[in-house]
Structure formats: C-alpha cells, structure tokens
Specification:
By secondary structure, this protein is mostly beta strands. The protein has helices at residues 44-47, 49-52, 111-116; strands at residues 14-16, 21-27, 32-38, 61-67, 69-74, 79-83, 87-90, 94-98, 104-108. It contains three helices and nine strands; from the N terminus they run βββααββββββα. Strands 1-2-3-9-4-7 form a six-stranded antiparallel sheet. β2 and β3 form a beta hairpin.
C-alpha cells in the first residue's frame, strides 16, 4: 500500500441505497470509510432492519455528523441526540432516526461497519 491514499466519496468504490439511505464507501487500501446520507423520515427500524433482519442495529458506528440531526436509543436504555459538529461512538444494539427536516450526513470510520452497513445478510 502507498504511504498516502486518497479517494473521493463522489466516486465511491461501493454505493448502497436502502429506503431513504445512501451509503458511499471508499476503500483506502484495507481501511474503509463511509459517507452516510439519511433522508428526513429515515429510521433504522423501518429502513435498514428489513435489509439486515436483526431486531436492532448490530453495527458499531464511529464518526461525525456534518449536517442534520438524529436521535439514538440504545438497547441499554441510554439515549443521545447527535447534530452537526458532533463526533460519536455508538455500540451495537440500537435504533436511531433522523430528527431534522434536512438529510443527516455523517462520515464513519469504523472500517468493519463501513464495509458491511446496510448490506443484506446471507
């Protein structure tokens, strides 16, 4: 692998588009990053659950919000609002939904999640 690798999300290596969702993934030589754009009205349990088939999101998310806002409810009872400028780590076992009237745009850097989020299982 080269010492410096650069790719743009506008020409992503992979794009996934479940309902109200756009996930653009770039592979930076074994490390993956994703730009997630979630439309107003997006809710994990309505838009992604039918794709992955689990009761709650089982992905670990590490990233930052650059536009919009969302609310996250974890299976352990903790809740958090995320908005533009926030960095976050969300452990597996949660539901979430967009709370803004504009799309939520976030960048994620958990390589495993970027590589598998919103992909059908099986």
């Amino acid at each position: 692998m080269a010492g410096v690798v650069k790719k743009g999300f506008g020409s992503a290596d992979e794009v996934r588009t479940p309902d109200k969702t756009r996930v653009e993934v770039v592979d930076l030589g074994g490390v993956k990053a994703a730009r997630m754009t979630l439309q107003p009205g997006w809710r994990w349990s309505e838009c992604i659950k039918p794709v992955v088939g689990t009761d709650s999101c089982q992905a670990r998310h590490v990233g930052t919000v650059v536009a919009g806002s969302m609310h996250v409810v974890h299976d352990d009872g903790t809740e958090q609002d995320l908005a533009e400028g926030d960095a976050y780590a969300i452990e597996p076992g949660h539901d979430a939904w967009v709370t803004s009237d504009q799309p939520l745009v976030g960048y994620e850097f958990e390589s495993t999640t970027a590589g598998t989020y919103a992909k059908p299982t099986g």
